Amino acid sequence: LRRLKNLQELYLDDTNIDKSFLHKVGVMTSLNVLSMQGCGLNGSLPIVQGWCELANLQELVLSYNMFEGILPSCLANMTKLQIFDIAFNRFNGSIDLSPLPSLKSLEYLHLSDNYFNPITFSSFLNLSKLEVIFSDGNKLVVETLSQRQNLGFQLKGFSCSSCLSTKSSRIITRFLHYQFDLQILHLPHNNFSGQFPTWLLENHTRLAALSLQNNSLTGTLQLPNHSIPNLLILDISFNNIQGPIPTNFGLVFPNLDHLNISKINFNGTIPFSFGNLAFLRYLDMSSNTFSRIISENLTMGCSSLHHLILSKNHLSGQLFPANLNLTTLLTLHLDNNRFTGEISHSISNLTTLYAIDFSNNNLLGMLPRWMRDMTSLRGIALTKNQLEGPIPVELCNLEKLLFLDLSHNNLNGSMPSCFNWSKIKHVHLNKNRLTGPITSAFKGCSKLVTLNLRDNYLTGNIPDWIGNLSSLNILLLKANYLQGKIPFQICLLEKLSLLDLSHNSFFGQIPHYLSNITFDPTYTKSIIQGWIFIGSYVILSDILSKIFHSRMNMYFMSDLIPVVDLLQEVEFTTKNTILSYKGDILNYMSGIDLSCNKLQGEIPADLGDLSSIHALNLSFNNLTGSIPSQFSNLQQIESLDLSHNNLDGSIPPQLIELNSLEVFNVAHNNLWGSTPERKDQFGTFDESSYEGNPLLCGPPLHKACTKIRTSSNIPTDDEGDEACGFMDLGVFYVSFVVSYTIMLLGIVAILYINPHWRQAWFNFVELCISTCYYFVVINTCKISSFRIV
Questions:
Q1: Residue 770 lies in a domain
Q2: What is the pTM of this model?
Q3: Pick from 45, 153, 144, 142: which is nearest to 99 by CA?
Q4: How many CA atoms lie within 13 A of 281 on its CB side?
Q5: Can you give the residue range of the structural domain that contains 776?
Q6: 77 — alpha (psi -120 to 50), left (phi > 0) or beta?
Q7: Rounded Cα gap, residues 146 and 150, in angstroms
Q8: Is residue 783 part of a domain?
């Protein structure tokens, strides 16, 4: 390192450099910039050696590591330090007692997401050059502001997310009154209440970004009467502001780049003045009660839009105006509204689209064939509409597709065999009227994570190539007309976490190879997040670069900009209920449902190795044998249903070790013996869990167990056969021969004793012989005469 003593800037971000480097870096005496962001470093910072000797250092970035402890006193040696970023670590202690108040050259200070004691503004009284304070997640105490509003510095950027108490929220407004140079103000997740602070816009004319999301602002939105040309970013989402949007909104903020007014309770129509927002790239107006149609002012005037989100409103009429000028649009979310009619042909002009979500509307007609020209599409969500007709083969042209959801419609016909997208990850075609076999559709989709074809009219077998889908995590084929044996190739799907083959006509035995699949829900964390990032466009990058040093931008952007996503929803029956799993919760769910088929044979004991599974349903089959005692290893199981089979034997007492079990059902089998001890979870199950087993006894059944067997509660094979109404074959043969002999001897004895009965018996035998003789002779003559003729 001594050879690099003249080096001025050193960037080691996202490397695996050893922490000992900080002990050695002191020889690089000319160093002005040292950045070690995201290097996985932990422990305390060195106290005296190495990095403490960097007296010329002007920029120090140690964010996104796992450093802990207090800030070392030797930090005071860096008197020229201007930029100090230690965000997203585990530092603690008091800022007041740290070296930071003595670093009078500091301009940029990023302390977010650490464990510092409550920070007071008095710590920064002497830092006259301080321009930026980002302290998200740290408690900020501002009581001293009531006595001294002028702290000696003028901030350009202030971020304080989730850091203010109710009292501090009131006092902070006085502090902001005296900060005249503010360009970025980020105060989400606090307790601000009352009217929207219009004075912030009037007093801070240089303000470029304002974020007040997730507070408690109420009343109506009041805007200044004059234009605010410098404001580029406005986020007031997740508040309780009501009423319509002011009609002059687009005139007051003509240069907006990013606007988020979602989940506020706005109503009425979208103002025509939105057509003046020619520079707007991100618009989120979701979860309000806007009504009527989307005006052409919006689709023609906002020509720079990249993301348009109008979900969860009361918009109606045609899906999109015929005239539009949105040639740069990447994502379009119009879901959960009241749109009717066919999918507007005008959308075919939006060839740059990455994702469309028109789900949960009242759209009619067929899927348009012109979608083949939208080759940039990564995500299509059209679920819960009234679309009909076959799935057009033109969709096969969308080679970049990652997400396809056409569920809950009236689509019919067979699945196109060309459905072999190389990048597709999630396919939902459930609850339609699709017919025919699963031929070669999806055969080449090697990256497929979710295949949901349940509730259709599909026939035939599960194809053998299913084993080639090595990334498959969710396979749902419930409620079709599939048949045949469950192919062993399913056991090759090592990452499977949800398997639903219920309500079909599968027969044969349950493949014991299923135990090769761990059904570990942790696999989904790396493969299926429940949603996909589609065209996430970080708008702040070029905005903030004009305000601060380029290295300051990235830390603030991630908090302010929400990412556009498509959520997938999966239904799975567990705990006797059809539950819907949407989003991240899919990471934690795993289960097998083979119920309502024609499966036979014994339950493989190897299924007890599925220690991570949450639900197992084998009910309504023809399974025989006993319940495997290995099921006591299912430590994560929450729902176990073995009802309506032909299982026999006793219920393994080891099952009481299943502490997570919430639903247990073995009703309507041939089980005998005592029910499990009413202990822990088994103390919560009622009679319905055991009914339909006549030979079961013990609580909660109203049938006490009798102590006939003293040696064991488990019946022997002979006892079991007798209990089920069967007799040993050897005993049967002996009893039959004895009974027949006794009957024959009885007849002989009666005829010997009574001569009248004996004579009548001989006459009867003679008559039978004569009748048979004449019958044979007469019929023989008739046959001979027939042949001669």
A1: yes
A2: 0.82
A3: 45
A4: 14
A5: 736-788
A6: alpha
A7: 10
A8: yes
